[in-house]
Amino acid sequence: MKSIRFPLAAACACLVLPAMAAAEYPDRPIRLVVPYAVGGTTDIIARVVGNKLGERLGQSVVVENRPGAGGSIGSAYAAKQPADGYTLVMAVESSHAVNPNVYARSAYDPVKDFAPISNLADVPNVLVVNPALPAPDLAAFLRLLKAEPDKYAFGSSGNGGLSHMNGELFLKTTGTRMLHVPYKGLGPALNDLVAGQVQVVFDNIPSSNPLIQAQRIRPLAVAAKQRLKVLPDVPTYAEAGLPAMNHPSWFGLAAPAGTPAAVLDKLNAAVREALADPATADAIEKQGAMPSPMSRDEFGALIAQSYGHWKTVVEDIKFEKMQ
Question: What domains sit in the chain, N to C, each tagged with a CATH number?
Answer without folding.
Answer: 30-123+248-317 (3.40.190.150), 125-245 (3.40.190.10)
